[in-house]
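Quick question, first post here. What does this chain look like in 3D?
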Amino acid sequence: MVRKKTLLILFALLILALPLLVLPAYAGGWAEVEITSMPDKLYAGRPFTIEFMVLQHGNKPVHDLAWGDSGRTPVEPVISLGSSSAGGKLTFKARPAKQPGLFTAEITLPGEGEWLLSIDPKPLGGIGEFDALTVLPESSAPAAAPAIQAQSLPPMLNNTTAIITFAAGIFLAILLLAYRTYQGKQAA
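> Answer (accepted):
Ran it through. Tokens below.
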């Protein structure tokens, strides 16, 4: 009797665990992450942009997952960077770009040294782990190029101002012509 009860409990647990086995399929399965753009040199305290592609099942660029009639779930990659020498672990959320599957993130690493990079393409499985990033001291960074300030045109060259000035000139010419015509009729 005890053996039947034990088998019944094991069978019930197996039935209850089956949905856990298919959850990854409902979550969209797995994905690969490929870095498409990142600067050659990274400097502590200086922001840089990383660009990467999320490929569902290793071949289909994906921004979101369709859930049949129930809607869509966005892919929200999380970038993790860890360094024992610079201290701690940092995480950044990536933003989707216009191209399907392409994501970008602006990152600033606080210290120099080796940083381990991984990207988790949530809710898909398959964390992308990459070679360590070497971050150079901020003091070795090239000087930032001076920002170029856009110069505005003088107000008289502004299109709206020019149109208003032209219209006012035409109005004044018509007004002057009408006044002279009126004056001519008065003298006669």
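The chain has a mean pLDDT of 80.
The chain is about 30% helix and 30% strand.
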